[in-house]
Amino acid sequence: MVLNKQGFGSLYDRVGKEYILRRCKLQDKFKSSRYRSKFIHYQWGILHTIFKLFLRLFFLKKIAIRNTIEYKLEEIDVFLHNLPEEFHGFSILQLSDIHVESIVDRCKRLQQMISAVDFDICVITGDFRSGGVNSVDVTVNKMRELVDMIQCRFGIIAVLGNYDIIEMVTPLEELGVKILLNESLPIKLGSDVIWIAGVDDPHFFKMHNLTRALHGICSYSTKILLSHSPEIIRDASNLGVDYYISGHTHGGQICLPGGGLPIITNCQCERKYSSGAWRYRNMAGYTSRGVGFSRVQARFFCPPEITLHRLMSGKLLNQVKSK
Asked: pTM for this structure?
């Protein structure tokens, strides 16, 4: 495979030729008909086909589609004992699994929801695009309007998901979305700082490198990790991550009445980590149900979400309680 340095812009020098070459080879493997058949089976393709027939037979298709844009705002208070005082109340808006080409109302309701929320920074935890979409331009053009209306003082930081391709990085960054490819960024308020690290997709591409992403960050600094899926929880905890933000599972997308844990998650981790807030040892975490949908144009008993994470200083709260 011949790589064109000019085609990848500064990304070529940033992550290296070997990284890009490996990512491209895996992307080609994903697109191959032989592998795609195995992948569809892994994605419970037969069950999805049966469910589509069920929706048609019982005239539930319109309800199923409408449910895909009935977004719910989830607000989470995250208590971190090593959070600097300046960041007490710092808010992070999370969008995950947007699958932007598939959104039925062209993101109108999503934009309304976001515009009604105040936040300091926006993070996107992968899967900008939908499966089967080959054109980077289609994804980027549909993301443009959404990105333009996201206004916050620290901008947008993101990671790639299992449907995303490396060719998307440069045009998305030109829109103003900073993509972390096993990298980290400091966020500063006054004299205080926290770090946001991000890894490439650990689910299908398995291009994550936590050690590289966290390199150079002091052990006592607050570390927030963006990962497309919650599959590397143990490694993140071992390396001192304080808060792990992920998506990928869609919360199951189609669940049984009454809520509870998802039936199908397509995620290699314990089911209790596949939706909502959780803890692993000393690390807090959250797995979003996501904005969009995958394969089946439906949501039942599992509304799509946008998530507002508020960072809270455990030290400050302890001081208030002691007075």
From this structure: 0.91
Tally the domains of the chain: 1
**What band does 315 get if pLDDT is binned at 50, 70 and 90?**
low
> Residue 58 belongs to what domain range?
5-322
Most confident stretch, 6-15, 136-145, 293-302: 136-145
CA separation for the pair 91, 73 (Å, rounded):
13
300 secondary structure, DSSP code: B
Q: Specify the amino acid at residue 206.
A: K
Q: Which among 305, 285, 278 has a CA at the least distance from the CA of 293? A: 305
Domain at 65, CATH number: 3.60.21.10
> CA 164, CA 133: separation in Å to the nearest integer?
10
With beta carbons less than 8 A apart as the criterion, state whether 306 and 264 touch: no
- Give the pLDDT score at 58: 63
Q: What is the mean pLDDT of residues 232-259?
A: 92
Q: Tokens 């998307």 sit at which residue? A: 168
